[in-house]
Amino acid sequence: xxxxxxxxxxxxxxxxxxxxxxxxxxxxxxxxxxxxxxxxxxxxxxxxxxxxxxxxxxxxxxxxxxxxxxxxxxxxxxxxxxxxxxxxxxxxxxxxxxxxxxxxxxxxxxxxxxxxxxxxxxxxxxxxxxxxxxxxxxxxxxxxxxxxxxxxxxxxxxxxxxxxxxxxxxxxxxxxxxxxxxxxxxxxxxxxxxxxxxxxxxxxxxxxxxxxxxxxxxxxxxxxxxxxxxxxxxxxxxx
Length: 239
What we know:
- This protein is an alpha+beta fold.
- It has two domains: 35 residues; 185 residues, no CATH class.
- The chain is built from six helices and ten strands, in the order E-E-H-H-H-E-E-E-H-E-E-E-H-H-E-E.
- The strands form three sheets. Strands 6, 7, 8, 9 and 10 form a five-stranded antiparallel β-sheet that branches. It has a three-stranded antiparallel β-sheet with strand order 3-4-5.
- A hairpin with a 2-residue loop joins strand 1 and strand 2.
- Helix 4 packs antiparallel against helix 6.
- The radius of gyration is 23 Å and the shape is globular.
């Protein structure tokens, strides 16, 4: 009598071969992810790693885990100062961090740790290389309009609380290059000059570092700055 070597109509040898191939693929994929942590959703975030598939999700997740956020900054070699919580009510700021690295310097704002991590990543992987490539000069200083403002959105009494109310946002007005040139969002966003190309590039890249990015293309209220915050992706806007 011949014994049938089938399971559910499939030959057993083919099933075993399929399982073997699947195992090889899984092992190869695991090894590849270990060599490319920027694409690995389970590897610890390091802001020095190049941009990858998992980077954006890891960055925005830091909003809800300040302790892990501080660990990311330390792991990435980012200099920062951890400050005591402040404020009350809807404007209570449990996470207050000051970024020490250039180009914010002495004018570095106090923001949530998640915004600080996003800024460090964005400056390193977008702003600095884009300035050298498109403008031919490194960035010396980033001009900002602040992070904290205890108010509702657009100062309307019936509007939701702004991300600025907890320091979870920063408004970028421009960039001063080492050669003395100043790139202004208000002046240089329109047109097709190098300054405009630079601003559009860093706006697009910011969408991978922050939950919400609002530029002059969003509305007139943002004509003079880029609004960057770490609001959750479900509600975020990139425009």
